[in-house]
Here is the input.
Amino acid sequence: MTDDIVRGPTMRPSLAQAVPALPGKPQVGMHELLAFTIAGECYALPLTAIQEILKVPPVTEVPRAPRDILGIISVRGRVTTVLDLRRRLGMHERPVTKHSRVLLVDDGDEIFGVLVDSVLSVYRLLPEEVELAAAIAGDTAEYVRGIGRPKAGRAFGRSPMGRAGLESEDDIIILLDAASLLRSHRSS
Amino acid sequence: MSGSDDTSDGIREEFLAEAGEIVEVLSRDLLVLDQGQKEGKPDPDLINDVFRGVHTLKGIAGMFGYHQVGAVAHALEDLLDDLRLGRVELTQDVLDVLFDGVENFQRLLGGASEAGNAGDMDLSSYAESIERVSAVHEPVADALGGYDIDPGVLGVLTEYEEHRLRTNVEQGVPLFRLHVSFSLASIDSSLEELKARAKPMAEIITYLPSMGETSGDAIDLDVLLASRAPLSELEGAFGSLGIELAPIARRPVRATQPPPASASSVPPSPGPSADAPATGQRAGMSPPPVPGVGRLTMPPRHAAPPSVPPPDIESAGGAGQDALSLRSVSNSVRVDIRKLDHLMNVVGELAIVRSSVGRVTERIRGRPELRQVATDLHRINRSFERHLEELQNGILDVRMVPLKQVFDKLARVVRQVARDHEKEVRLLVTGAETEVDKLIVEELSDPLMHIIRNSIDHGVEKPKMRELAGKPTIGTLAMNAYQKGNHVVIEVEDDGAGMSDQKLLETAIRRGLVSEEARGDLSHEEILNLVFLPGFTTKSAITDLSGRGVGMDVVKVNIGRLGGVVDLQSEQGIGTKVSITLPITLAIISALIVRVCARTFAIPLSAVQEALVLDPAAIRTVEGREVLTLRGSTVPLCRIAQAFDFAPPEGEAPHKHYVVVSALGLRRVGFVVDELQDQQDIVIKAMGKSLSGVRGFAGATDLGDQRVALVLDAPALLEDVLLGSERPRATGSVT
Here is the structure.
C-alpha cells in the first residue's frame, strides 16, 4: 500500500520533503513525479506541485459549475475546488472508491483538489527516460508534458493493486502539466 | 514566493499603513481648518500640524521610493510653508487645493497597494493648481490689521520676524515703536539690557538701525515691539534708557489691501508703496535706503536670536521631527486583516473539533463502564467551548474599527459637494465611535458617499429657496450611527426639500417601472421605494454629482451584499432620512439553513423577509411563470431545484414545500425549498477563483459536520428571476 505517503488532513509543508530516501541519488535534471491512475492508465504530476494527498472527504457539488468540477471541500477551513480528472481528460466518470484520492495541487495561483482513481508511487526519472510532448499529438496533448518510460526497478514502492500499476517494463507514465490542467478554469 | 519578496511586501505595507494614517490625520486637520477659515480664525497651529504631516509624508515617501507621493508632498509643503508664514492667505480656494492633495495622496496610495507600486498618475494639472494658489502672493504689507508700518521696514524683515509680526497682529497684540540711541562702544550690552527689560512684558519683533539723525559715535535703532502692557508700563520699563516710545497707529478699517493713504486720518502715513518711503515721521519707521545695507550694518543681528522662545513651528521640518516620526508613538499593532481571517478560520476549525469531541462523548456515555470518563470529557468540552467563544469574540473585537474612519472621509465629500452646488450645509455627526467590522467600513464609503451626494444635490435647497421656505439658510446634514443589538444603524438625514410622491411616480411611469394603472395602488412607502429600482433617477438633467450612472439601486445591492438593508423616509418640505442597518461583522452572519433535493444551502437572514409553508392552492401562473399571491400582492416563485437543475429526488416528492420570501427594493421573490432546517450563525468563505464565474452563490460555509454548504446569493438569484433571463450557466471550459 502507499499509505506511507497518504495522510489524513494534517499539516505538512511539502510532500517532496516527506518522501524518504529513494533508490538512486537525485541528479540534476531528474524528474520527480507522483504517479497515479485514471481509468487504468498511469499518469503523473511533478512532485513539487503536490502539497498533500487526501482521502476523499465529503464533496459538495456546485450547481452551474463547469462539468469537470466535482465540487468543493473544506481543507482546514479553506474552501477548495475539486477537479474530477476523469471528466477533465474526457473519460467516463465513476463513483469514488476506497482507493480514490484527492491530490492538493498548487499551480501557483490557486490550490485545487484533483480527484484520481488511486495513487501509485513516487518516481524519479532520468532525462533520458522522458520523451517530451513535442512528439505527441491528440486530444489531451494540451495538458501532457511528455511520456515517461521508467526502466525496471526505478519505482519507489509497489503499485497498490498490481493490476493498475506498472507491471512490465513496457509501461509508460503520462506526465501532466499542472498549470495547463487547471488553467482554463480560471479564465471561465 | 521568495523571502525577499516577503520583505519588500512587508515594507510596502508598512509604508502604506503609515502613509494612510498620516493622510487621514491631514484630512481631519483640514476639516477643522476649513471650519476655522469660515469662522475667520484659522488656527495657525493646525496649519503647522498639516505642514508637519506633509513633511513627514514626503520623508517616508522618499525613503520607500514613492516618488509621486513625494512630489505631491513636496509641492504641498511649499504651499503650506507659505501659508504658515502668512505669505499666502488661507482661502477656500487654497483649501480646495489642500483637500485635492489629500485625494491625490489617497489615489496614489490606493494605486500603490493594488499595483504593488505607486500607480502612475498625471499630476501636472494638480501641480498647476498648486502653482495657481501659491502664486497669489499677497503684497507683504497686506493684512497687517491696518498698522502703519513702513513697507521699507517690512521689506527687510526676515521671514520669521514677519511671521511673528503677523501673528501678533492677528492675536490683537498692540504694536509699539521704540526709538533708541546707543553708543557704538556699548551697543552689545545696551541691547542685552533692552532685551532683558522687554522680556517680561513684550516681544521684540525686530530692530533696525535708523538712518535719521545719526551722530558720529552713536547708532539709532528703531525697535518694533509687541506688547499687551499699557504704554505707561512700557515707558516705565524703558524710560531710563532715554527712549522715545509710541504706539503704532492703527487704521480703523480692516482691509486686505491697505486702503489708499487718504483713508488714514490719524497720523500722516506713508502709503504702502515702496517708492514713497517715509521721511522720518513719527508714525512710520524710517527704512534704511538700501535694505540690504541695513541688514549688514546691524552688528548684533547674527548674535541676537529672537528674544522670545521660538514658537513650535521652529521644530517643524527639523531633523528631530524626522527622527520622531520613526518611533512608534502608540502601543497598538497594525495587523493585516487577512491574518485575522486566518485566525477566524482556525477558530472555525476548533469549533468543528469541539463538536466532534461532543459526539464522541455522547457515544461513550452509553457505555456504563465509561460513564465517569464521559462526564469528565463533557465537562472539559464545556470549558473548551467557553474559551473558544471568548477567543472568537476576541478576534471579532480586534476587527472592529470606529465608523469615524469613513465619516471623516465623508465630511470632505460634504464640503466639496456643497461648494460645487453653491449650497450651504452644516454637517452634524454623532456616534462616530460606533464600531463595525473593518471590511464593512471599507465597503461603506461608496454607498454612503452616494447617499450624501443625493442629499445635497437633490435634498438640500439653495440658500434663497430655504429662506423662502422659512428654513434657516444653512442646511443641515446629520450622520448618526448607533448600535442596535447585533446591528449597527447608520442614518443620513437632511432637512431639505424631501421627495415628492407625485414626481417619483411620474418618473417611474416614464421609465416604465410602474404602469399608469398601478399609480393609485401604491402607498407612500412603496412610492419611496421606487428609487431603489434600477434605472431610476429623478433629476431629468444628469448632474455630475448624483448622476454618475449609479443609482440608489446600486446602493441597495451593495448594502445588501454586506448583509444590510436600506430604508428610506421622506416628508415633502421637511427632509429625507436614509437608514442603513448592518450586521456588526461580516465574519459571522445569521443564516437560514434550508434543504433542497437532499442538499443543504444557507440563505443569509438579511435577505429573508419571511418564510412560510407553500400553499399549492395559492400558486398561479403568469405567462408560464409561477407566482404566489401573498396577502394581496404577487410574488414570483423560484424553485431552487429547477434553478439549479437538480434531478428530482428518488421516491416520492416531499408533500410539503416552503417559500422563503426575499426582497430587493420593491421586488420580491419566493424561493421554494423542501425543508427549513434551522437558523445558524455561519462564517462565509469565498470559493476559489476557479468558481468565481458561477452565479448564484455568495460563498460557502462549513456547517460543522465536515460538509460544506453553499450560501445562496439571494440578490443575484432574484435578479435572474425578475429579468426572466435564461439561467446563465458558467461556460466552463470542457474542451
